[in-house]
Amino acid sequence: MSYKLICIDMDGTLLDDKKEVSEKNLNALREAIKKGVKIAVCTGRLFASARYYAELIGVKAPVIASNGAYIREKDRNDVIYELSIGVDRCKELQNILNKYKFNVYYNKYDSVITKNGFFQGNTYAIMNKNLSDNNKIKLVTVEDIDKIIEEEGDDILKCICISDDYENLVKAKDEILKTGYYEVVSSNRDNIEIMIKGVSKGRAVKVLADFYNILQSEVICIGDNENDFSMIEFAGLGVAMGNATDHVKKIANYITDTNNEDGVAKVIEKFVL
C-alpha cells in the first residue's frame, strides 16, 4: 500500500518524555516529505503550540489542533475547518463544572483562559520561554469566567479540566456526556478534554484527507491515548505506540515502539520508506 498522509499525535507519540522530537524521528519525517507524503501534527494542544513543532519538522500539511476542532495551515491564516463550543454550550458546561473543584482551562486557537491561574511547570508557560513574542501562547487569568464565556465563547474550541480527584473526573465526564452536546476524552489520567459534539481527531483526519483527495486506505494515524482512538480507528493503518493504553492497542493494526524509542520513525521506515 502506498501511503500519502501520516497524522501523528504529539504528546506520548512524536514527543519523548522530555517533550522533544528525536533526531531519528525528524530524519524519518523529512525523508517521508521528500517522497511526497503529507505529514500532519494531530494534537489536543491548541494550534499555536502545535505550530511550533510543525515548524521544527518542516510539516507542509495543516495542523490538526484541539482534538480536531481546528485545522489550519501553519504558514497561512486560512482555516480549513473549525467547530467551536459556542457561548450557550460553554455556559451550560461551566454550570456543570461549578460542582467540582477542578482546574478549568478554556482554549482558543492561540490562547488559554482560566480563573485558576497557571501552575508551575505548565507546558505552555515553559514553551513561551523559547518562543518569540509574536509566537507566544497567550495565558490569560481572569476573575469572572462567566463574563469571558459571554464575550468569547464562540471562539472557544476546547475545555480541559485537570485534577488528581480521578473519581470526580469520571463522574463529571459521565454527567457531561449525558447532555448529548459534547465530546469528552482524556489525554492523561488527570484530565478530561471537552469539545462540542462531532469533534474528534478521526473526523478531522477525514476532513483533511478529503481536502487533499486522499483515500482512507492511504492514511496512517499514530497515537497513544484515548483522544487518538477515533483517528487510529479511521486510518487505513492505525498505529499504537508501545506506551499506548491497552484500549488503543486493541484497535490498532500495528503496535510500534514507545515514544522514547523512536516509535514514529520505525513506523515510517517500515511502511513508507
UniProtKB/TrEMBL annotation:
Q: What Pfam families would the database entry show?
A: Hydrolase_3 (PF08282)
Question: Would you tell me the Gene Ontology cellular component terms?
Answer: cytosol
Q: What InterPro entries does the record tag this protein with?
A: Cof, HAD-like_sf, HAD-SF_hydro_IIB, HAD_sf
Q: Does the keyword Protein transport apply?
A: no
Q: What's the superkingdom here?
A: Bacteria
- The answer to whether UniProt assigns keyword Hydrolase to this entry is yes
Which EC number(s) are documented for this chain?
A: 3.1.3.18
Molecular-function annotations in GO: magnesium ion binding; phosphoglycolate phosphatase activity
* Keywords assigned: Hydrolase
Can you say what this protein is called? Cof-like hydrolase
Q: Which organism is it from?
A: Clostridium pasteurianum DSM 525 = ATCC 6013
